[in-house]
Amino acid sequence: DTGVSQDPRHKITKRGQNVTFRCDPISEHNRLYWYRQTLGQGPEFLTYFQNEAQLEKSRLLSDRFSAERPKGSFSTLEIQRTEQGDSAMYLCASSLTGTAQETQYFGPGTRLLVL
Amino acid sequence: KQEVTQIPAALSVPEGENLVLNCSFTDSAIYNLQWFRQDPGKGLTSLLLIQSSQREQTSGRLNASLDKSSGRSTLYIAASQPGDSATYLCAVKRKIGSSNTGKLIFGQGTTLQVKP
What we know:
heterodimer
C-alpha cells in the first residue's frame, strides 16, 4: 500500500488549454474525493465517488470541470478551457466505507498554474 | 450551511512552548472532526480524528478536544519543536441521520512557526 498518488505533481498551461489530472487511491478504498485549495485557504470540496458513481458535485464545479472514475479505481479530473482563476492545488483523497469514521487519506496534490 | 473558522491565522512561538489552536463550526450535526497538518506545497497528513461522541483524542504531544454543543475544537501541542512548523487545518464531516455526507468542510488553517 503506497498511499494516494497523483499525477502530474505540477502543471503549467496557457489559458484556454485543457488539462487532465489523475488520482490513484489506496487500493480497495471505495470512496474517492477531489478538493481544490488556493493559496492561504483550506481545501474546498469539488466532488466525490463511491465506486464508479459520482455521488455529489459542488457548485464550484463549473461546466468546464468533469471527473470520472470509470472502473471504480483511479479517477481523472479534466478542466476544459482553463482560466487563470483555475490556478490552485488539486487534492485527491480516498477512504473506505464501513471503517471507523472513514478517515480520508490525501495525496500530494497537483499544482496547476494557468498563465 | 456549515462554516468552519480557525483562529489565529498565524502563530509564532519559541521552541518548548505549549500552544493551543482553535477551530469553530456553525452546525453541531457533525459526524466527526479531523485535524490535519500541511507542510508547504504538500498534501495533508491526518493527525487526529474525533468521533462526534468523543470529547478528546491524544497522540503523542498532541491532544484534540471537541465540544459539539458550543461548536468548538482545540488542538493542544505540548513542548513545541521547530519540526512542528506547518499549517494546521481542522475539518468537519457533516452528519445526515446516522450516516455521513462524505465530504470534509475545512477551516482556513493556522500557520504555525516554532522558532529555535
